[in-house]
Amino acid sequence: MNILYGVNATGNGHISRSRITISELKKRGHNVTVLFSGRDVNDFFDLEEFRPYIIKQGFTFVFRKGKLNVFKTLLNIDLIQFVRDIFKIKKEYDVVVTDFEPISAYAARKLGIHCIGIGHQYSFLKKIPKSFKMKLASLLFLRFYTPINSTISSHFYHFNQSILPPFIEKGLKNQDSVPTIKNTFLVYLPWEDQDQMISILNTIKSSEFIYYSSLNKELQIGNVTLKPFSNKYFKEDLIACNGLLTNAGFQLPAEAIYLGKKILCKPLLGQPEQEHNAKTLKKLQHASVCSEFTNENIEHWIRYGKQKKELYNDPNDLMIEMIENPEKNFNNKILKLWK
User: Fold this and answer.
1) What is the Cα–Cα distance from 212 to 250, expressed in whole angstroms?
2) CATH code of the domain covering residue 329
3) How many domains is the chain partitioned into structurally?
4) Running DSSP on this structure, what letter comes out for residue 132?
5) Contact status, residue 287 vs residue 279, Cβ threshold 8 Å
6) What is the rounded distance in angstroms from the CA atom of residue 258 to the CA atom of residue 155?
7) How far apart are CA 75 and CA 61, in angstroms?
8) Residue whose C-alpha is closest to residue 138's, from 150, 151, 153, 122
9) Domain limits for position 267
10) What's the pTM value of the predicted model, to 2 decimals?
11) Long-range own/partner contacts, residues 317-322 (CB < 8 A, 24 or more apart)
């Protein structure tokens, strides 16, 4: 099949999980063109294995100090360019897959091509526990942002719905033999104030922190090692660390849970999906949750935080089959993955 695969590049989670699925689709002989949007072209890294790919502007969410800035987000939208990008896509694909990427989804609707929404966000279209804000977001925003014909959704738990477990790349599996570096914690907080976070972490003298950042080279500030973004080295540090400080996304917490790492997460304020994820992670006892990163909160988590390992069954083969057969019902196979 000829597949257009749209990837929302606002966060690295979409790119990380798409990397796995796109690789498998190519191995099975499918022609995959990848469309990225939602990030400045200069902020991408490690894209070689995605070729051929296209980068478009799309929509970028603006966060400031861990909170969604709705006004600046709306100001950044270029609707004229968005429409132009949609019309540049030709009817040369058998199916369109969108990992929460809007240009590919709207192009599929315009061209009459079946569009599959793949990823965590689409679990909110199922009958799962949701806050009032998340119900509104799923009814209005989700359906408007990426119009789709069918979904392949995933979550930390199935809620008796046709929802897949998280998928974990092969490099993170069978890592029990890798030694953990004592008192070392991984930090991934791209939307928090970095200088403020470093000042807080510098007060926690008993621990070391590896902080991934948009730098060109590694930098040491006290007990904080700043590293430039790299998929390979980030995953190596995730395997070796004691725990993870992050926001309440989906893919990274799922990987940390699979590896048995303890997690301290702070949901992005004004982002209903992250607020929902934080509540779910806490309820499933997979993470500690805070409303603000302070040295007291972090030190308490380092001392008393617990981890709960979950060896999710691999859904990747089933995901590929679902992409190849978008009209087929896979409910029974999905639920078997959780047993």
Assistant:
1) 18
2) 3.40.50.2000
3) 2
4) H
5) no
6) 13
7) 10
8) 122
9) 170-304
10) 0.87
11) 317/24, 318/164, 319/21, 319/118, 319/152, 319/164, 319/167, 320/21, 320/24, 320/25, 320/28, 322/116, 322/152
